[in-house]
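Journal club prep — side note

Before the paper discussion, L.F. wants everyone to see what a predicted structure for a comparable chain looks like in token form. Sequence:
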Amino acid sequence: MNATNSGSAPAPGLTYLNLFIFYSRDESRGADGDVVGTISNSVIYDLNTFYWATRKPILAGARFATSATVALANNSLTTETNGAVSGGGGYADSYIQPVILGWEKPRVRIKAVYAFLAPHGPIHRRSAH
């Protein structure tokens, strides 16, 4: 989510970004690549990011910004031999960037960020075991 224009500071004001990711598979493969069993496995991530940035520079020409990404996740795993193995859903870890400083020149853009991952602990899981 941060790779394209990674040196650019967010636009002034409030910005909302949503990234929805869905992974699914229906077979399990061994080390040699052969199918060793059928499964039902799906993972869903819904990432919601909020950015806020100043319009005017504050420090040596840098604009200040801040962002928070709140994630929701859901996971389900069932195999033909073991039945329901695991699953669950809820809040996933949040990624917080309380300080973003961005310098923009005609041909160069630089961004310095202080960030941390805020773990929410394990999401609620259900298990057949």
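L.F.'s comment for the group: Residues 25 and 92 are 21 Å apart (CA to CA). Keep this in mind when we get to the figures.
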